[in-house]
DNA sequence: TCATTCAGGACCAAGCCAGTCCTGTTTTGG
DNA sequence: CCAAAACAGGACTGGCTTGGTCCTGAATGA
């Protein structure tokens, strides 16, 4: 596999959107602005709140706001928040030795290096790096017909989740 | 998710085992030596053959052999062979624009950087790097009771596929 | 000619993810 | 004080993917 969950993709979209405006934004408003279904936006934001990436304000006039600037949120944090700690296989360092043949396994402990390399790569890229630099408030599509806007589907509804390039 | 499929883990085990001996090895022999179920070994080796990582010899006295040394096989190639090209999301470079709202998507084209970073990391690690250096022929468990040897289960049969560390 | 071994699918069960919904709880505003 | 707005936290289900097995066919060597 080695592919991200859709929720992670949604999370990045939602967080980047949150980064466009420091005022409190409701889940419904973000859904309208991004095209992501509202229940899904709410789900993502709840996870992000638990992870401490966003702050929430309950009650009427409540909403969400980034807990820190986009540049301080590495992609790895978003992935970890949604998918759990990044561990390509069970045989990574610090994991309990659940291999029932750790003495036999010829690659014992060797996935650590791969895992660390990926973790490093993902820790070095922040959400700010994923925001198109030329995108400013003026270029946002006017929300005159939010319900008629094209919906954002990260993987294409009728195609396989992961595109097979090359 | 961001976890490897079990088949990929098996593939590394099988390939490293193949690298221990340049003579032709049968799928059954590899299964006995590694503890991986024989049908699964066969499946993995067929995929590896198609990918060109191993050479096969059909017929009686046939078997498999590495097509190139372990040091010339990056982990990325193994993953690509089993899971298809590494593409975290559908929004990676070269993929068809199947997002039905590419104009809206605020992270359009920005997963490329993440994807490239991971690809680079995986391309820089070879199977030789995953072979325990101190493991030589003498340290191999004697195959006197191959059927009684502990089986290799990369993720632990009774636990979740990916260990949640920390 | 026969046993051995790989080739290439088809196939099925199990597990996981995505997405929705429902019921609280908190806060604002009239 | 009440009602509406908005988040909190689960439960639930349908669909998809993966894992693992098996079966038939082709090639090779004895």
Mean pLDDT of chain A: 78
Strand content of chain A: under 5%
Helix content of chain A: 25-40%
- Distance N terminus to C terminus of chain A? 16 Å
What coarse outline of chain A follows from CA principal-axis ratios?
A: elongated
For the largest sheet of chain A, list the strands in their spatial order: 1-2
Radius of gyration of chain A (Å): 19 Å
Q: Supply the helix-strand structural class of chain A.
A: mainly alpha
- Helix/strand order of chain A, N-terminal first: HHHEEHH
Write down the oligomeric state.
homodimer
| Uncertain spans of chain A | 135-149, 155-166
**What's the total helix number of chain A?**
5
Largest sheet of chain A: 2 strands, antiparallel
Q: Which protein chains make the most extensive interface, counting residues with beta carbons within 8 Å of the other chain's beta carbons? A: A-B, 72 and 72 residues
Work out the number of β strands of chain A: 2
